[in-house]
Amino acid sequence: MNRKIITIMAVIGGVLVAAIVGLYLERNSLLEFMAEKHIRRIETTHGLNIAYDEMRLKGLDEILLRNLSVVPDKRDTLLTLQSLDVCLDFWQLLRGSIEVEHVLLDGLDITLNKQGTVANYDFLFRKQLTGATDEPQEANYALQANRMLHLLYGLLPSNGKLHRVCITERENSNFVTLTIPSFIITENRFRSEVTVLEDTLAQYWVTCGELNRAKQTLKTELYTSGNNKISIPYIQRRFGATITFDTLVYSLTKAGEDPLTITGQAGVSGLEVFHKALLPQAIRLDRGQITYQFNVMPRSIELDSATVIRFNRLEFHPYLRAAKSNRMVEPNRAVKPNQVAKSNRAWHFTASLSKSWFPSDELFGSLPPGLFSNLDGIRTSGSLAYTFFLDVDLEQLDSLKLFSELREKDFRMVHYGATNLGKMSEEFLYTAYENGQAVRTFPVGPSWEHFAPLDSISPLLKMAVMQSEDGAFFYHRGFLPDAIREALIHDLKVRRFARGGSTITMQLVKNVFLNRNKNFARKLEEALIVWLIETKRLTTKERMYEVYLNIVEWGPNIYGAHEAAAYYFEKRPSQLTVEESIFLASIIPKPKHFRRSFTEDMQLKEHMEGYYRLIAERLFKKGLISEAQADSIRPEIEVTGEAKNSMLP
Fold first, then answer.
1. d(Cα 159, Cα 211) in Å, to the nearest integer?
2. Is the pLDDT of residue 157 over 50?
3. pTM of the model as a whole
4. DSSP 8-state assignment for residue 452
């Protein structure tokens, strides 16, 4: 019996040995078969022509590839590679996992070429069609991130040499070329020099770092020799922006599984950024660093509050979360039969920041020079605390929550800086702009013949404008959170910046202190100046409203209540009727288009009736007119001033 068992086992062993020997002898045929199968699928899917001279196995774990080329259909060559030798971890390979132990690469040339609208890489952006039987798959972000990290660390070799690597991006007559003569990895560490040629500008970069699969860590540093700065290529041509810096460091580590946790650091020194949408001059940042922690769950991604952002002297801990909600939303359009439907779950975003009491000069002393020109050189004392919270469910925008508060304790302005933020308290020169160009300059005070003191303006006009623009002006401290929240909801619904939620203080700061360039930096500077003026009462509310009524635009080259009353009605601001006051309040948002409020026979259009009733009701509640007057008010005025001539056919 034992002999039979031994015999059977011997036969089975012989068969297995024969099979292994056969597989070993035919391994190259098997490799070519599998490679050709995948290559044909990729060629068919993406419209590519992939060719090579040789692909074979050396031993059981080393793959050799010679003279590879990738050419898109009817396009220029995308990639050529002279030789590649890759040594894999055999035992990991048996387990179905790819881990590169050693790599030798020579002569890699990648050319991204675009002439007019035709590019040899446009196949990357084509939508891929699938069968009608495919079911839409719900994204699992933790699984996808894990796969990407596993692929990244699996492909990072412990040792290797890459020679003659050239990557070129060419668009018509412009180009950027990155050339790496030699990239050597020794015991997980690397260092390489990179030559960057952009049209006629040449740069020489140095990069070094560590690729460690065991620790699942990637660290890298980028800098240039001498006193030169690194200038990021391509973005000037593509986005009209310039970004330069001295040194950039970055690290990434997979730190946990459930949830998937990714930690790391990113830092930059000597950063300068220029784009006309930010500011007319470059923004400078001496030091910036983020120590981050991302938590990735199946249906959400969050930036943990353990994250630390250091911005010059300022340090804070932000929290961000993006999650797919449980509710399904109706798709905007029907999915075609041969396409997979995308997940139509709504996104839910949450952001918060809470910074307890800290020295105020940490904030104002950290403002990058050039970004907030009015605040350059400002010095303060005392303490500040800031709290911010935003919750946006894109499926239920009306439930949006927003809270932002900057508090002060013993706060004092030691020095204004570049601009006297209290200048509105006295007579000052005001310059009006149109399309970024100065059109008029005049003093806002008694020396201007058209200046109208607050007590010389009709209470009807003062209240009509206030109720139309900012009814709570005398009670708030520069901001109306509810108005900002409603404006944000509206902008998200229409998917553009349509409303701003501005108060009268914000409009004043925008026109008196800031440049005419509409950009994100200006909004931040506006908020800081508004907070300073209102918190420290640098200008009284009464004087601010007086300034507002004297500089607000009321028509083509018409500024202030004095000029407006004369231009439309040949009156003084104190002589205006209720109807005339409401009309002037109605055209402040679009003063150059006041003619649109009238019919061809110079009567106010019917759609103005609702606005007149609303303001009249508010004037009644404020005690300026009787209820009977409010009920009888209609959009009926007679234009008698110079404006009448501009309305004639």
1. 10
2. yes
3. 0.78
4. -
What mean pLDDT do residues 212-230 have? 86
Out of 126-135, 321-330, 577-586, the most confident range is 577-586
| CA–centroid distance for 514 within its chain | 22
Task: Tell me how far apart the alpha carbons of residues 442 and 447 are, in angstroms, rounded to a whole number.
Answer: 9
The predicted structure's pLDDT at residue 15: 41
DSSP per-residue letters across 102-145? EEEEEEEEEEEEEETTEETTGGGGSPPP--TTPPPPPP-HHHHH
Q: How many residues does the chain have?
A: 649
175 neighbors 167 (Cβ within 8 angstroms): no
Strand 159-171 to strand 100-115: parallel, antiparallel, or no bridges (unpaired)?
Answer: parallel
Which region among 200-204, 331-335, 610-614 has the lowest average model confidence (pLDDT)?
Answer: 331-335
**Going by DSSP bridges, is the β-strand pair 260-274/308-311 parallel, antiparallel, or unpaired?**
unpaired
Task: Find all residues with CB under 8 Å of 62, minimum gap 6, and list them.
Answer: 85, 86, 87, 88
Phi, psi angle pair for 171, to nearest 5°? -135, 110
In this structure, what token pair is assigned to residue 520? 């994100």
């970069």: which residue's tokens?
Answer: 205
* Cβ–Cβ under 8 Å, residues 295 and 302: yes
Task: Tell me whether residue 589 is exposed, middle or buried, using C-beta atoms within 10 angstroms of its C-beta: 0 to 12, 13 to 18, 19 or more.
Answer: exposed
CA angle at residue 464 from 529 to 516, to 5 degrees?
35
For residue 211, which of 261, 160, 142, 248 has the smallest C-alpha distance? 160
CB atoms within 10 A of CB 538: 18
Specify the 3-state DSSP secondary structure of 369: coil
Extended beta strands in 396-503, E state: 401-415, 428-434, 437-444
Weakest mean pLDDT among 15-19, 217-221, 516-520: 15-19
Per-chain mean pLDDT for the chain: 85
By C-alpha distance, which of 481, 499, 506, 555 is closest to 514?
506
* Measured CA distances, 250 to 23, 289, 319, 341 (Å): 45, 10, 20, 37
3-state helix, strand, coil in the chain (%, to 5): 30, 35, 30
Q: Is 88 exposed, middle or buried (0-12, 13-18, 19+ CB in 10 A)?
A: buried
Side chain identity at 501, as an amino acid letter?
G
Average pLDDT over residues 124-151: 68
Residue 540 has what pLDDT? 96
